[in-house]
Amino acid sequence: MKRKSQFKWKRKLFASILMCLCFGTLVLLMHTHYTRIMTLASIRPQLTIQRPKIAFLFIARNRLPLDMLWDVFFQGGEGKFSIYVHSRPGFLFNKVTTRSVFFLNRQVNDSTQVDWGEATMIEAERILLKHALEDPLNQRFAFVSDSCIPLYNFNYIYDYVMSTGTSFVDSFADTKDGRYNPKMDPVIPVQNWRKGSQWVVLTRKHAEVVVKDDTVFPMFQLYCKRKSLPEFWRDRPVPADNSKEHNCIPDEHYVQTLLAQEGLEGEITRRSLTHSSWDLSSTGDRERRGWHPMTYKYSDATPMLIKSIKDVDNIYYETEYRREWCSSKGKPSPCFLFARKFTRPAALRLLNTTTLELR
Q: Tens digit of pLDDT for each residue in 346-356?
């Protein structure tokens, strides 16, 4: 009897231990499963916020004088944009040179010295695109000058740009200025010669076309050059006959001509999103007239000015007898999202008077 009771006691102990082990295993499995669910739940939101981004490509002489205005603009779009700045070689964006955290250390490290009216300007554009293409989330590439302002808040501009699969490229047939150099033929035939604004917004596909180009760019370096003016004759030989020179400004032709050359004009919206006012009466010199857009100073920066730019809903191209009616998502829309050229005092006035609703 004593042995039987001892045996029952051992059996009960063994059963209790076995039940504890099973229960412990069940608890461990449930905890592991719960941990996996929580891990997946924490990963999933991170994946959903990785939206396509607009890469803002700033071309600057040195610092960005309107960084305080752009700082307000970018506060509404975290996670949906990237910033790259091409400034003079060696210039750094740190706490001394910019007051916006968005621009800290955003300069490219292989910038080139840019001279207006030279192929170095399009070289700078290609450098910016090369860096921006390294981020696979960058799906649009917007060139911005150091005197440019946004006219709307970030979300409006983001939705406008992302709502179409096309690039925005101001492009039209150049039949009047005589900028085409016949020496470009047959590599660049005259029927592919285009003109337009350098402030384009490109899709990723078209940005890759620009960076990979090894045909049109070398021709521009050789044959698309600004006409010599007396103040530049110290830097280059005096021309034998100044009247026979082709006055070619590379950045006003390069992207437009390249996309025409590649047969991609059907994939672009043929207008710029950046407004410029070309004041043809600003100089009495016929050679220089219309070379630079009007600069808006403090006294110009009024609600009436901004409204007049925002109200533009169509653009007429005289050389093609073409009127471009502006639309977004299939509905009539303002033509311009950005505007230039604004001085720092003008931009501060717009910001302080809440004329620009950037948030």
A: 999 999 886 67
Cis peptide before 230 (omega within 30 of 0): no
Q: Which helix (H) or strand (E) holds 16?
A: helix 2-48
CB 138 within 8 A of CB 147: no
Does residue 252 surpass a pLDDT of 90?
yes
- SS3 state at 234: coil
Over the Cα atoms of the chain, what is R_g? 30
Q: Where are the beta strands (DSSP E) in the chain?
A: 53-59, 81-86, 138-145, 149-150, 167-168, 172-173, 194-195, 201-203, 268-269, 274-275, 314-317, 322-325, 327-328, 331-332, 338-339
Task: Name every residue whose Cβ is closer than 8 Å to that of residue 115 and which is 6 or more positions away in sequence.
Answer: 121
The whole-number average pLDDT for the span 14-19 is 63
Rounded Cα distance between 344 and 300, Å, is 12
pLDDT tens by residue, 63-85: 999 999 999 999 989 899 999 99
Secondary structure in 3-state letters for 135-153: CCCEEEEEEEECCCEECCC
pLDDT, greater one: 285 or 25: 25
Distance CA 264, CA 91 (A): 36
- Return the SS3 of 260: helix
In whole angstroms, what is the distance from residue 181 CA to residue 185 CA?
Answer: 8
Question: Taking Cα atoms as reference points, which of 95, 99, 53 lies closest to residue 72?
Answer: 99
Q: Which residues contact 64 (CB under 8 A, 6 or more apart)?
A: 58, 70, 85, 93, 98, 103, 146
Per-residue pLDDT for 284 more than 80?
Answer: no
Residue pair 86/61 in contact by the 8 Å Cβ criterion: no
pLDDT in tens, 90-123: 999 999 999 999 999 999 999 999 998 899 999 9
CA angle 183, 184, 188 (to 5 degrees): 155
Q: Are 356 and 150 in contact (CB under 8 A)?
A: yes
Residue type, 328: S
On whether the CB atoms of residues 283 and 289 are closer than 8 A, the answer is yes
Among 284, 260, 282, smallest CA distance to 270 is for 260
Q: What is the dihedral angle through the alpha carbons of 55, 57, 62, 68, rounded to the nearest 10 degrees?
A: -50
